[in-house]
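Hey, resending since the last one bounced:
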Amino acid sequence: AQAIDETSLIANEPVTVVLSTGGFVRAAKGHEIDPRSLSYKTGDAFQAVARGRSLQNTVFLDSTGRTYALPAHSLPSARGNGEPLSGRLNPPDGAKFVGVMMGEPGDLWLLATDAGYGFTVRLKELLTDRRAGKTVLTVPAKALVLPPAFVATPDSLVCAVSSEGKMLAFNVADLPELPRGKGNKIFGISPKKAAAGEESLIAIAAIAPGQTLRLRVGERQMTLGFKELADYRGQRGQR
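The structure tokens again:
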């Protein structure tokens, strides 16, 4: 007699994992679902989405810089409103889930805080079987954790936007790859302004050749192609 590996009984199919602002999670079959079209509990709303395979792990990032992992096939169906992650995980008191990641162990992701610091990390470094999670990103005092950004290619550009409406683009290779830590300066925000809440990094993205970047401010929006990002190129840590 030989014990059966439960994953051999599970179909390896595409899934979409949706995280809500209230920390509820659910998974839908396929990659076509629009997460914003799903119904949410009163007071809850769409937070983040990740697309992957049912046999992959789903990695969650919280507001304290910790990561948690759950098998995608174990998540509740998107036919309902999902289930609270706090029922399966033990985040610190007051922590909120800010992002979700899926993919291959060697995939590269960009983690950052709104204080303007961050680094790239392989997905395998974020995996853990501990309910209390794994401390990965060091969060400066009063800083917020930004949603993680997938890095598709080595020649992708990191695009960072500040609360003052400034954008900086630089090659992702200029940002060190680390297993954990505070990271390096992405955008030139003075520590004084950051601590006083006068300026912050509000969004990051990694744009690969052939992709476009869409920026929204209220009702206005602007779309920039990869070549158009040349106007915003600079050195890491500049403004």
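The mean pLDDT is 94.

Sorry for the duplicate.
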